[in-house]
Amino acid sequence: MGFLFVLSQAQRWIIERIKPGDIVVDATAGNGADTLFLAQLAGAEGKVYAFDIQSSAIENTRQRLNSVSETEGLAPVDLLHTSHENMASGIPVEHHGQISVIMFNLGYLPGASHDIITKSSTTLSALKTAVLLLRSGGLLTIVVYPGHEGGDQEANAVYAWASDISPSLAQTIVYRFPQKPTAPYLIALIKS
What we know:
The chain has helices at about 5-15, 35-40, 55-65, 85-90, 120-135, 150-165, and strands spanning about 25, 45-50, 75-80, 100-105, 135-145, 170-175, 185-190. The chain is α/β, with parallel strands linked by helices. The chain has a seven-stranded mixed beta sheet with strand order 3-2-1-4-5-7-6, sandwiched between helices. Helix 5 links the parallel strand 4 and strand 5 (about 135-145). Helix 5 runs parallel beside helix 6 (about 150-165). The longest helix has 14 residues, at about 120-135. It starts with 5 loop residues before the first helix and ends with a strand.
């Protein structure tokens, strides 16, 4: 048996951290898989905030959530049609510093145009905000995709950002397959 794919590893770390009733964020809703995953783990007493700039991503996420046959155990989800860099204004102030998990799955929306991708400038701004929104012991996961046009620049910028974080603020880790330099990889952070 081999190592887990990066998304599976991110989910494994999240499962270890999240508890029913937690407040969590999907910073890149996409087609809703991560949003649903978080809503299931946070449970009916929890709360999920999901962000995406594309209206099709918000609609895809809404449809995925509505297609689940057992919705009564899911956390309520606020779908926010805005950039993840607007997390601080999209999440009520009373939840700032209370969030247990924030997921980023960068790149482009699967099944949509590859011309619309996450960008280093907005992603770095969002990551800086995300660290402030996390509670102590909170987990931030970031899956980067260096294999598409513009993805290597963003991956390098996120890696440099994570490398420069003071250990007094957070512990960071990279989960990567070095024999596959263009394959997606995972950067994670636990806030001190």
